[in-house]
Amino acid sequence: MKTTWLGTALMGLIVGAMILVPFVWTGGEAANLVALILVWALFAIGFDLVFGTAGMLSFGHAALLGSGGYALAILTVAHGWGFMPALGMAALVGAAMAFGLSIFAVRVSGLFFSLLTLALAQMIYVLASTKLRGLTGGLDGIAGVPRPALFGIDLYDNDNFYVFIVVVFLIGLGLMALLRASPFGRSLRAVQANEVRAAQLGYNVQRLRQAAFVISGAYAGVAGSLLASLIFYISPQMLHWSVSGDVLIMTVLGGKGTLLGPVLGVAVFELLKEELSQYTQYWYGILGAVFIAATIFLPNGIAGLFAPRRDRDKGEGR
Amino acid sequence: MTGGLLRCENIHVAYGAFKALSGITHEFRPGHVYGLIGPNGAGKTTLMNALSGHVPVAQGRAFLDDRDVTGLSIHARTRAGLGRSFQITKIFAGMTVLENLEIAAFAHRYRVQPFWLPAGRFLKVREAAERVLEQVGLTRLAHRPAEYLSHGDQRALEVGLTLLGEPRVLLLDEPLAGVGNEQLERAIGLIQRIVTGRTVLLIEHNMDVVMRISHEILVMVQGQILATGSPEQVRNNPAVRSAYLGEEP
Fold this sequence. Notes:
CATH topology of chain B: Rossmann fold
Number of strands of chain B: 10
Strand order of the largest sheet of chain A: 1-2
Order of helices and strands of chain A: HHHHHHEHHHHEHHHH
Number of helices of chain B: 9
CATH superfamily of chain B: P-loop containing nucleotide triphosphate hydrolases
Largest sheet of chain A: 2 strands, antiparallel
Largest interface: A-B, 27 and 36 residues
Strand content of chain B: 15-25%
Helix content of chain B: 25-40%
Distance between the termini of chain B: 43 Å
Structural class of chain B: alpha/beta
Oligomer: heterodimer
Radius of gyration of chain B: 18 Å
Shape of chain B: globular
Number of helices of chain A: 14
Shape of chain A: globular
Order of helices and strands of chain B: EEEHEEHEHHHEHEHEEHH
Low-confidence stretches of chain B: none
CATH class of chain B: Alpha Beta
Number of strands of chain A: 2
């Protein structure tokens, strides 16, 4: 789906305003929440390259997020690596994990791709919880995941760490904007729109899908690292299939196939969760109802509100 | 355009127990237009699918300019110089006509798609797409989403997508299917222009068009080539007449 120029600008303004809130409202609390949103948004942006742009419903993205997080935690806590090299390595580990999964997964399409990614990711979840206990700390996870040390600034202060996350997020967002607008991004959309025609034109469809998955893995790896660093902790929970489900819900809620839609989806999801969980332990059920209502009344997600009417009526945003 | 010799050697294709093609052998000479005719289910489209890599060949070989392409994937055959249009229109919905053509141009020009610049910055690609846009007569619809085009215009776009690969061998599967009378002459003119200088296999039910454009006709029945010859010879062949009319000889 294409949003209008004005729609994209409006969405950009909303995201920009959200990023600015913690600068006005200091004290760490707002920074913590928006940081969480931006980290998940980074994950969702990467997820949507596979889901919204290339048209593959991955149900195994938790494995990519988690392996990135574990890579950073293990390298920094157990091997004394600096934060920045470990962050770079986490991106590579996320990409490598994605490449590994893709060897099996891109051979099949549609539902089989979803199920295969789910199965492979659950396998990794079980491995991290049990067999690889020596490396991952098993169900106890790894505590004391550090934050970066840069230019002598105290990044254990939430407001300062927030700035770091904003910078990483904006770099990730900018790179994704370029990727999506590039011939590579267009070829992914072509594969989604008509796979047979794309192959007939000379595109190596499997290779393109694999590339999208690997890039997505790098995004997930970075997001997982930042998440672990934000809460100083990682456990197999980050590898759990429900994480893959959450990022899917966030992306659909925000509007798949758009650059800023997933960011808004994450924001709404996290804000609702934050508010609802203060009142009831059944917040996830209410969130589910909101999601169902959204799929009925906003079939193109929140971004659909910013699309031309012609595209809005079609339901599926393609 | 040089080259474009397509050779089939004893090609067999089976769907389970059903033999869709049994032993197709033929040499398609460069620059010639070959009309494939025959009743429904004769294997015309299956032959195109086998040549372009959409169905596996059970037995036999296909050569493009003496290169064995039998085991190659669809995209590799395209890069080897083979173009294909489909009976059922396959275009990219959700994108404009010009974007459709640009995607075809990028596929032809780059093995690894550039990811470091926005697509709009590639002016050579834009020019190539615009040339074809004009060739197929869709310039005034350049910025219309492809799915909103009339059927006839979509067929023209389908042909345009194929052209951007600069194929030496072109497989056209019913390019006129569903084109209305008012657009027919324009569509025929387009096909006549694009087949020039290429090796072309043409499936078309409009007999006037096939006979007019083709240098040679292949009559297919039940997965085999029943007869070949000039349009004149085929028209007067009694076996062809009976096969086509469904009479016992």
